[in-house]
Structures are given as structure tokens and as C-alpha cells.
Write a structure and sequence with these properties.
heterodimer; A: 283 residues; mainly alpha; 11 helices; disordered N terminus; B: 347 residues; alpha/beta; four-stranded antiparallel sheet; 14 strands
């Protein structure tokens, strides 16, 4: 019938079974997603640039802002700059980290890996789900690292560890929603360089025209309006309200958190189907 | 009764609105045999493979693998096929073993089976020692072997090999041929695409020659080559006028029409050495002194010339089967249609 070597213990027919239905299908989809997640996480540890962006760069940013720019910026309300900074820099970090998602997917497409996946009896959703799950795990690692470094240079968890964890939770939900947007970019770009070039002009205004690094009141009025209402700004405000208290941000913490979560859900509802649609088309 | 493992019926595919990659391709592959799709770059070979492996949907026509329709029963098809080649890659950041495990797991094989298959395949492809190194450190030949190994993890009954040896050095090419021969000995059906007549000749029981999205000839390698003459005598001369003259003088010696390519004459013959003596004798009698003299096997280029009256546009990196200088000669000849690049297609 088949086979290359004839191992007595091996069945003579093809090894993979016929596609399952119902519960079996869902189980397969989850198993496939985990397989792809594992593959992406292993790959990250072996790509020097990816390692740099996930480890050294976030550390450098914390130190840079804390010691170079920090002295020139006064957040007000008796809050130290490092306490102010943590919310912004964590959001910044997960946002820029998404470029890795775009680059990785575009690479897989370009190098033909996705062609192979398409000819395998695996779940169609697993390639994107595995990629975004792996990047979410990477974000958890990056945030943990930044928290450690932040604590070393003076961040003292003004509202306690629990509130901090809640803030991190919001950042991760936001990161996950955003990753699908980067997946769209990665699938649309013809190569990984283009993917990078496409991601930057979207990210820069969102990150820097936001209260991530400087207090809102130092910006001109029209810019404040944009910075307060665009998704990165909203998430920074919610994160900061949780980490150091609402006094610095104005309004209530709950309102900020709700607004941030609404953005996350909105982004996810739009971007995930868009990415899946692009994936189906990118043959 | 013959059963077919792969059937293609009138497959058509157009990319965008203009690039017609397949214009109605039909062929059938008997179970347990190797079938070769032979053709130049852009002929539509890869497009046919992508359709039969469920990656692309055809615009018209139908494909079946072990009786399953590739469009309507794609999942059933995916469960019985393996794909390796040009465009189906392996992950260069993973080790050989990790790549094989990943493919095994995505075929939903149990972990112990996957682990055992990885060991078996690494051994079989001479990669046991390199098995735990990332692919980045592999040579081109090793990478290709792992690529084929990955296609075999789930013991597919039908294997698609898309230009498996393009870009490989001669030694790696021969090793891969031996592997494919072993596989077929085990009963696997193989669809192989290639630009090399030599490769198709060695591996395939039957061949279809593809050009501009159509099958222009089909048969056993022996049948195709019988139409060509077994050997080509290539004589280089001082100028094109002398070449024309020599072509006329040698017409009687050739089994097929002679052709002039720049300053060379190509003389298809049956009995190489004997014909070579005859060619030299004729030239000598007419006081023509050759500047070059070569005996060679017919190439894909010759098949094409015989079938279509024009040269192929094969070439590019790794195109070792073509005699050196053939490309520049073709350019001077200037008869062939413009090169098509339908195969890459828009993504």
C-alpha cells in the first residue's frame, strides 16, 4: 500500500485519519493552534532581532525615558515620572511588538510555509490563532520584564499589586486585539520589509500623539482631543488610572476601563474577521 | 482494471484577468506509479499541483485524488497527500526534528507516533546528526531532503513533488532520486514536476509535457524520446553561413530535421558514435572544420523544439541540465515566444 520504510509496528495505510466533526473538530482546532503557537515561540527564541525587540529594547526604553526624558517632565499631583511612565511604556511596548506579528506572517507567506499549511489536514484558523496566541505570550513576557526593570528604577506600585495586574490585563486584551490588525498588515504586505514600512506610519501617531509619555495638558487643545480619544490614548488612560489612580487622568477609573474595553472589543470585531478574510485570499 | 490515484480533467486557472496559467489540463496517474509533469518555467506545472493539493481552486475542470474531489472534499484530500517542493517550505528557525514533529502534529498523529516517525525519517534521509540543529545551518540539499521528509511524516498515499531537485547540486540530486525510487517501491503514487528531461526519464513511468497551460504531449519517456532520436550531435562552426551550409549537408545523416542555433548545428541521431563518425566524414569531405563537437542526450529544450518548433525559456538559477551557452544561443535565435511567468501568479 504505502510507506517508505516498512516498520512492522506501523499501520500500512496513511497515518492521518479522516477529518472529525463536532467536538472532535474543535479539539483539533485547539490542538493545531497550540502546535502553531509552540512553533512561533520556538522561532522567537532563535531569531536574534525578535529576541532583541522582546528583551533588550523594552528595557532600554524604560531606562531611556526614566533617566533621559523623565527629568524634563512633571506629571503633577505629586506623582513621580516613573510611576506615570509605567502605563505608557507598557502600552507602547505591546503596540510596537505587533510589528513582529506582521513581519512573521508576511515571512511565512513569502517563504511558502503557509502553502504547506494549506495542504495539511489542519484547522484553517490555526495559523492566525497560533500566531496571535504566541505573540500574546511574548507580550506577557515583555510586560513581566518591564515590570521588573521598572521596579528596579523606582516604580513602587502606588495602587498595589492587584490594581497593577488589572492594568496589565487591559493592556493584554488591547494587545491581542491589535495583533489582528498587524496580522492584516502582514498578510497584505508583499514582503516583511513592506510589512514593517506599512506598520510604522500607523503606529507612530497613535503612540506619540497620546498621553503615553507626557501629560495631556502639555499638548495643544486640538491634539489633546485626538490623544484622549484614539485607542492607544484611551488604553493608556485606563491603565494609568488603575496603576496610579484616577486623579492624574481625571474622571473615574471605571469609566476609563469601560471605554478601553469597548475599544478592544470594537477593534477585535473588525480586525479579526478582516485578517481571516485576508488569510483566505492570500493564496 | 486500472485505478487512478490522481485525475485532472480540463483544469483551468486564470490569475487576475490576463495571466492564463492553465488552459484545460487533463491527465491521470495510475496508483503506485510516478507521473512526471515536464515543462519550462511558467508552463503551469506548479499551478496544477497547487490545485490538486487543494491550495488553489480551479476556475473550471475538476481534480480528484484517490476519488476525492479536490474542491468539494478538500479535507479528505489533505488527509491522504504529502506535498514538497519549490513553494512549500519548511521553517528555518526550527530544527529538523521540530519541523517533522510540527507537520506530524498538524496531521493529528499521536505524540509517540510523531516522535518515532521523526527518528525514522531523519535516519532515512541522512539527517540524524543534523536533526537537532536549526534549518538555518543546513545546506540546500539537506533542506530539500528535510522538505521531502516532512511531506512523508503521515505516510501519504499520494505524494506531490514540485521541482524537488531544482537548484540542487548533481550529487544531492542523485541522492534525492534514489529516495524517490525507494518510495515508489513502497507503493506510493508520486506526481513529480520537473524542468529536466533526464529527471523525468529516470523516475517517471509516464510523462505529460506542459506548455502555456496545456498538455502538448503525453506518453512514456521512451515514446517521447523515440520521437527525438536518442542523441544530439552538436557541431560548432566559424560562422552562421557555414552552419547553414553544414545543416544542409548533414540533413541526410540526421533522423530528424537538423537545426541551426547561431553558429552551431544540432543533428538528432539514433546511434551516437556511428553518426558522429559520419558527421565528421561529411564535414571533412566538404573541407569544413568544426570549432566545437559535442554528443549529448536530448534535453527538454530538444523535446520542445520537436513538439512546438520553438525553444523553451527555461533557465535561471540551478538550471544545470541545459548545456552552457544555450541561453545566449537562444537569444540570438530570437524565435521563441516571450517568456511567460504565469506560474508565480499574484498571491
Amino acid at each position: 500500500m504505502t510507506t517508505v520504510t516498512t516498520t512492522p509496528t506501523s499501520p500500512p495505510a496513511a497515518l492521518s485519519g479522516t477529518p472529525a466533526h463536532g467536538v472532535g473538530r474543535v479539539r483539533w482546532a485547539i490542538a493545531d493552534t497550540l502546535t502553531i503557537t509552540k512553533r512561533n515561540l520556538i522561532a522567537y527564541t532563535r531569531i536574534p532581532e525578535a529576541l532583541f525587540f522582546s528583551t533588550l529594547q523594552p528595557i532600554m526604553f524604560v531606562l531611556l525615558f526614566r533617566y533621559v526624558f523623565g527629568g524634563a517632565i512633571t506629571p503633577g499631583h505629586g506623582v513621580t515620572y516613573i510611576d506615570f511612565l509605567m502605563a505608557g511604556i507598557v502600552v507602547q511596548s505591546v503596540s510596537f511588538g505587533g510589528i513582529g506579528t506582521a513581519v512573521g506572517l508576511s515571512d511565512d507567506l513569502q517563504k511558502g510555509l503557509i502553502e504547506r499549511f494549506r495542504a495539511l489536514p489542519m484547522s484553517r484558523a490555526a495559523v492566525l490563532a497560533g500566531r496571535t496566541t504566541a505573540d500574546l505570550v511574548r507580550n506577557v513576557f515583555v510586560i513581566a520584564l518591564m515590570t521588573g526593570v521598572g521596579a528596579l528604577v523606582g516604580f513602587d506600585f502606588p495602587k498595589g499589586a492587584l490594581a497593577y495586574l488589572g492594568a496589565v490585563g487591559i493592556v493584554l486584551v488591547f494587545a491581542y486585539a491589535l495583533l489582528w490588525g498587524f496580522a492584516v498588515i502582514g498578510l497584505a504586505a508583499s514582503n516583511s520589509e513592506t510589512a514593517q514600512v506599512m506598520a510604522f506610519p500607523i503606529l507612530f501617531p497613535l503612540i506619540f500623539a497620546s498621553p503615553a509619555f507626557v501629560p495631556l495638558h502639555t499638548m495643544p487643545g486640538w491634539l489633546q482631543a485626538f490623544a484622549t480619544h484614539q485607542p492607544v490614548g484611551v488604553v493608556v488612560q485606563a491603565t494609568r488610572a488603575l496603576m496610579v489612580g484616577p486623579a492624574l487622568v481625571g474622571g473615574s477609573t471605571a469609566a476609563h476601563v469601560l471605554e478601553a474595553l469597548a475599544w478592544c472589543v470594537g477593534l477585535l470585531v473588525v480586525l479579526a474577521p478582516l485578517a481571516v478574510w485576508r488569510y483566505r485570499r492570500a493564496a | 482494471m486500472t485505478t487512478y490515484a490522481i485525475e485532472a480533467e480540463g483544469l483551468e486557472k486564470t490569475f487576475g484577468h490576463t495571466v492564463r496559467a492553465l488552459a484545460g489540463v487533463s491527465f491521470a496517474v495510475e496508483e503506485g506509479t510516478v507521473f512526471g509533469l515536464l515543462g519550462p518555467n511558467g508552463a503551469g506545472k506548479t499551478t496544477a499541483v497547487r490545485i490538486l493539493t487543494t491550495i488553489l481552486r480551479p476556475d473550471a475542470g475538476r481534480g480528484r485524488v484517490l476519488g476525492h474531489d479536490v474542491s468539494r472534499q478538500a479535507e479528505a484530500v489533505r488527509a491522504v497527500i504529502g506535498l514538497a517542493g519549490q513553494y512549500a517550505a519548511v521553517d528555518e528557525n526550527l530544527t529538523g526534528r521540530e519541523n517533522l514533529s510540527m507537520v506530524g502534529r498538524l496531521n493529528h498523529l499521536p505524540r509517540p507516533v510523531v516522535a518515532r516517525r521523526a527518528v525514522e525519517l531523519l535516519g532515512q534521509f541522512g539527517l540524524s546528526e543534523a536533526g537537532d540543529r536549526p534549518l538555518k545551518t543546513y545546506s540546500g540539499g539537506m533542506r530539500r531532503r528535510l522538505d521531502v521528509a516532512a511531506a512523508l511524516v503521515a505516510r501519504p498515499k499520494v505524494l506531490f513533488l514540485d521541482e524537488p531537485t531544482t537548484g540542487l547540486d548533481p550529487q544531492s540530486r542523485i541522492e534525492l532520486w534514489e529516495t524517490i525510487e525507494t518510495l515508489v517501491g513502497g507503493g506510493t503514487t508520486v506526481l513529480l514536476t520537473t524542468q529536466y528531461l533526464e529527471e523525468a526519464d529516470r523516475l517517471a513511468r509516464r510523462l505529460a509535457v506542459v506548455d502555456h497551460g496545456r498538455v502538448i504531449a503525453e506518453g512514456t519517456p521512451a515514446q517521447l524520446k523515440a520521437d527525438l532520436g536518442a542523441t544530439v550531435v552538436e557541431v560548432g562552426l566559424v560562422d552562421a553561413a557555414t552552419a547553414e551550409k553544414a545543416a544542409q549537408l548533414l540533413a541526410g545523416t540526421a533522423t530528424k530535421p537538423t537545426s541551426v542555433v547561431g553558429r552551431s548545428v544540432e543533428v538528432p541521431v539514433d546511434d551516437g558514435p556511428r553518426a558522429a563518425m559520419e558527421v565528421l566524414r561529411v564535414l571533412d569531405q566538404n573541407a569544413i572544420v568544426p570549432t566545437e563537437f559535442t554528443l549529448r542526450e536530448p534535453s527538454l529544450d530538444d523535446v520542445f523544439l520537436a513538439l512546438t518548433g520553438r525553444r523553451t525559456e527555461i533557465g535561471g538559477p540551478g538550471d544545470g541540465a541545459e548545456p552552457a551557452g544555450a541561453k545566449s544561443r537562444r537569444r540570438r535565435r530570437g524565435r521563441q515566444a516571450a517568456a511567460t511567468t504565469a506560474e508565480g501568479g499574484p498571491r
